[in-house]
Amino acid sequence: MPEETKKRLSKLGENVHSQLSQVKNPDINLPIRALSNIYFDEKKKLIMLGGKVSHRTYLNVAHTRKFMQTMMVAAECKKIIDQNVTISIRDLYYALKRTIPDTREETFDSQGESDPIIEDLEAAMNTLREKLNLKADRKGYMAGQIKILDGRDTIDASRMGSSGWGIPSNMEPEKIHFKDNKAKFILVIEKDAVWQRLNEDRFWEKQNCLIVTGKGQPDRGTRRLINRLHNELKLPVYVLTDGDVWGYYIYSVIKQGSINLSFLSDRLGTPDAKFIGLTTKDIEKFKIPGNVTIKLNKGDHKRAKEMLNYVWFKPKEWQAEIKHMLQVDHKLELEALSAKGIRFISETYLPQKIKQKDFLP
Amino acid sequence: MSDIKKSAQELAKDQREISISEFFEKNRHLLGYDNKMKALLTIVREGVDNALDATEESRILPDIYVKIEEVGSDKYKIVIKDNGPGILKKQIPNIFGKLLYGSKFHKLRQSRGQQGIGISGCVLYSQLTTGEPTKVISSTGDGKTHKYDIKINVQKNEATIMKEEVTEDKDNKWHGVQVSFVAEGVYREHKQSALEYLKQVAIANPYANIVFDSPNGRVEFVRGVEKLPVEPKEIKPHLYGVEVGIMARMLKDTKARTIVSFLTSEFSRVGSLSAKQIVKTSEIDPMTSPRKLEHKEIVALVDAVKQTKLSRPPTDCLSPLGEDAVSAGLKKELNPEFMATLTRPPEVYRGWPFQIEVGIAYGGSITEANLMRFTNRVPLLYQAGDCAITKAVSQVDWKRYGLSGDKLPDAPVAIFVHMISVWVPFTSESKEAVASYSVIMKEVKLALQDCARKVGSYLSGVRRAAAIKEKKSIFEKYAPETAIAIEELTGKNAKETEKMIIKLVEDKWGEIVKEDLEAIENAKKKNGEPAESSEDESGEEEPSETEKGEEESEEAADEGHEGEEEEEKEVKD
Question: Is residue A220 within 8 Å of residue A268, measured between CB atoms?
């Protein structure tokens, strides 16, 4: 397998070299990872990458620096595969950062320059970051009655104390396996603080589930974990976020993937995920006091209107929810449920929602 | 009875003495003597303005010498010498020894005009601050040189001759005036100093040669053109500029027997048809003697004028420098890298003809943005904030011409704006700021935009040329790292690959820069075009006094493009 990746990297170099030897402007074709080149696959219910390609050429002043950076990242990946080590994307940035001879310019000014190039290469060579021997910082956590096999270690996710199991960046089946699952569903929670509350209440034990947080927008590892738990163990996925546009968008990324990583949607998206809350209709349903809601700001309005036009927010329930939010002009945070009592969320809100199957698609 | 009469006379005397000194003290700020720094500038300004007026009126190319010399603590000797026609012996006491004496007062003619109270004010200021008389030397070129030491008798408002001397030398052909003052002052070389004033005078009067011996050494402002501007003609007032008060006074003073002949003889561009029309509209009995009109009738007359269409005033009363002379002035003093100048056609505000000339000079010895304001070739150094010219400059959207910056360009440019008029509307008596009539602002703006466009297209050519250079260095700069990476991927020798990249750049260079070179050529062509015709004019022939229809189309055109952002937000992974 690493041989295949190495071959592809070498091929990239060979192509550029052969164009140069023919005195042709070297050209790397990269799929465009932007709203203009994605489509919503109605069958898979996933955001997929389209066929449009951009040309990164050397003789274009706007591209030259990126061209060099692309070759440098490719070369570094080949080197670490050769050495059989895995490094973090931050390591990669530092490994390649240097001053260009006879200038005061750095090869890379920030990690913000090298990260997108890794994604470019993944998309262009149809491979994965993990296959390039790269990993990212972990961000997500899980707790619940399941065992995880990570290399030679077996981890019991029900015995991880107050912090939970840190979800690694590489969640590929070559590395991670699941065992002894007792959970009946997965609850994905936007906010770490709420996750900690539920963990302390041993919600996963009482409700027989796995609780996962991505701390805001979940990283790839967390999304891959949700995808695999769902596909391999057939567990339903429920997502709990703030009742605002940003929360809804987090849900949509978990469900059908993102624009930026649309080439990975098959691996990262979980189209069967359901949205458990919060919705603006919960305010009436659960008699949440009006003083804990927050008025929408300009950005909320703008984003809500954009979202109404996304294909994947077209289901009538979502259209109704977003329009309702605009109409009542309120949003609410998960923590607002504490106004009804500190255990309201674990003892009343979630059990009732799950029991009544009160979800948005 | 006689007792009372006498004391009344004495009282009057006292009053007069108080009033002249007091008038001076109370109005120092209007007269140009608010502080010691400004006092030196005012003296130089009065002397130089007189010298320029005298030489121009006699059609002599001005040669002016100015000297400021420190003679004590905060005490300076100021000398101004010209090559004008000289002053007749009998006029010398009046001109230097009598406050508010002068010939320019009632003439309707483009002239420098007095700021403050003129040269006799300098005599008074010197006398009040140092007690020294003013020395005047004058010759009309007949070999006789008159020398006077003059003070002002403030009781009588007349000259006291302290010393008088005539020398005769048949071989001495010099004519002109030299005047020296000893006055309190402080010499500095900042933006509102005598030095800056002379520099700006040299720009706006490029036909003058000025030598300045300052306390810090000699500065020479060498003559740049050998031709004096055309002498402006006197004109009569235009009816559109006449208000009830002035009308009443003119009616009282006129020799005309009928209102119609009053209108045709005292004003410019009023034919008997228009005059009859005005009288008819005003419903005044045409047979009434002009001197006997009642206030109500005068108001009706002024109102009738507003309803009558009159030809524009004649414009031969205006003498602009012309684009070439403005260029010459800017060039000799600032040595810019590039400049654009424009003289707009005459316009009219409230019946007064006026004309705007603008020059924008870029780069060279100019290091920062600087606005220079002039009226009738006189630099305005104070009250910039209140001035219509400053306001018009700040309304120009400099960014669209490649000159970043908000109110002034953020670039090394000198902006020259010259308003020429028989009657410059100043905001106050100190005559440092032009009043903001919208037609004046509009003219200034149009001229500035035209010049800015030329400077902008020059700069875009320069920037393109720099960009071409930059381009090559970009392609070369990234070659070594790219080549090393290719070696790591393929094993192909990096040095060889680097050579291949450089060869590629050389081979394709013509193709790469073709577009840029064409753009530079185009920019050059545009600059080469004669600047006479402005593209902004169209159908402005009628003497309309409306202040609408501002040519804002330029500004409006670009507005639609703003605020369009590609919305491509994606939550970070």
Answer: yes
